[in-house]
């Protein structure tokens, strides 16, 4: 292969590797945060039952909550301690997590703080049960959809395994050393890359839409 062909293939492979790594990290963070919410809800419920205020209950998550969600709650606590309004600090959490589950949680806490509610703990318990069942269902679906991702990986690797086998033959090596052969290799790498991205998109579960996206504000 020519130097230009090798550079082109290396760039495409590097780009694919970087994209795959970033996607993996992003999905890992999102998954860890999602799995943390049942525990967060249980901690908030326990704190409210012990007589703590909503602000105190949320601030406590920054100290005793799951590691993957602590930092935003620590920022929330700092905002409250500095005198920032509860609604503004709650809006920060809402936008920081930007998740349908947390939207429901923070909206419920907002209305409880503004208007009072004897059913707040009951609502949070129901939300906790819903979140747990939803996570379990999504986990099961992810496992069943795993074959699509495996198919994408196999479809991406198989042609290049065949290519390596063909390269062991003298005639094939000479053919791929020609400009036309190198063009075919580059086009093959690009096609494989695009097909892999398409298969990964098909295998991705759709995210729930956020319903509560407006900022919370005081009536004062």
Fold blueprint:
Blueprint lengths: L2 H47 L4 H11 L2 H15 L4 H12 L2 H16 L4 H25 L1 H21 L3 H8 L1 H25 L17
Helix pairs in contact: 1-2, 1-6, 1-9, 2-3, 3-4, 4-5, 5-6, 7-9
Give the overall average pLDDT.
Answer: 80
Structural class category: mainly alpha
Helix content: over 70%
Count of helices? 9
Question: Number of folding domains?
Answer: 1
Shape, principal axes of CA atoms:
elongated
N/C terminus separation = 72 Å
How would you describe this protein?
With 220 residues, the protein is mainly alpha-helical. It has one domain (1-201). The protein contains 9 helices and no strands. The longest helix is centred in the first third of the chain and has 47 residues, at 3-49. The termini are far apart. The mean pLDDT is 80.
List its traits.
single chain; 220 residues; mainly alpha; 82% helix
Summarize the structure.
The protein has 220 residues and is mainly alpha-helical. The chain has helices at residues 3-49, 54-64, 67-81, 86-97, 100-115, 120-144, 146-166, 170-177, 179-203. Helices cover 82% and strands 0% of the residues.
